[in-house]
Amino acid sequence: MGRFFLLALLVFCFASFCLYFFRNPRRRTDAGPGELVSPADGTVVDISDVVQGEFLGGAATRIAIFMSPLDVHVNRSPTSGFVVAMKHVAGKFAMAFGKDIEEQNERNFILFDHEGEKILIVQIAGFLARRIIPYVKVNERVAQGQEVGMIAFGSRVDIYFHKGYVPVVDLHAKVKAGMTVLARK
């Protein structure tokens, strides 16, 4: 009886963790025109000026958001518009808060077009994450805050945008997908 109870307790704990981890709370986006919302729940770990040549063709601002195992891992569209490109790149599974993981780790690029403006998010798998699951397809219309994918036991989501937007969050800020405004014109 004792072994059965212990096994049942372990199964219950694992099932409870999975239910908690894969939760997807309803979110309402109240962002105004010219605002980009966070694509992920988590903590802002980097705000920097970069060159993103492949999808944006030059200078951009990147905001990197680290998702801990306690954060919601469903990712949302930072803007309304169309998904105009997607690309999956195989790679390593290094710790998500490490340096240069955006170039080494497995990742999925989703490029949005909002009235001619290109906004890019990159879903990056980390040490625990082994699976990036996109919910959208190329040429699909999305609403701001709409679910676009998840990183199973995920790690980091980066958003890239052009210089017409100004970041309005600080480093180490806690953000909520589809709710927290990251940048505005």
Relevant terms:
185 residues; alpha+beta; Glucose Permease (Domain IIA); 8-stranded antiparallel beta sheet; 3-stranded antiparallel beta sheet; 3 helices
* CATH topology (fold) name: Glucose Permease (Domain IIA)
What is the N-to-C succession of helices and strands? HEEHEEEHEEEEEEEEE
The strand line-up of the biggest sheet is: 9-5-6-7-11-3-2-13
How far do the termini sit from each other? Answer: 64 Å
How many strands, which pairing sense, and closed or not: the largest β-sheet? 8 strands, antiparallel
3D structure, described in words:
There is one protein chain. The protein has 185 residues and is α+β, with helices and mostly antiparallel strands. The protein has one domain: Glucose Permease (Domain IIA), CATH 2.70.70.10. It has 3 helices and 14 strands. The strands form 3 sheets. It has an 8-stranded antiparallel beta sheet with strand order 9-5-6-7-11-3-2-13. Strands 1-14-12 form a 3-stranded antiparallel beta sheet, with no helix packed on it. Strands 4-10-8 form a 3-stranded antiparallel beta sheet, with no helix packed on it. A hairpin with a 2-residue loop joins strand 6 and strand 7. The protein is globular, with a radius of gyration of 17 Å.
Quick description:
The chain is α+β, with helices and mostly antiparallel strands and 185 residues long. The protein is built from three helices and 14 strands.
Write the SSE topology.
Layout: H1 2-21, E1 35-37, E2 42-52, H2 53-56, E3 58-66, E4 74-76, E5 81-89, H3 101-104, E6 107-114, E7 117-124, E8 131-134, E9 141-142, E10 147-152, E11 156-161, E12 166-167, E13 174-175, E14 181-184
Antiparallel strand pairs: 1-14, 2-3, 2-13, 3-11, 4-10, 5-6, 5-9, 6-7, 7-11, 8-10, 12-14
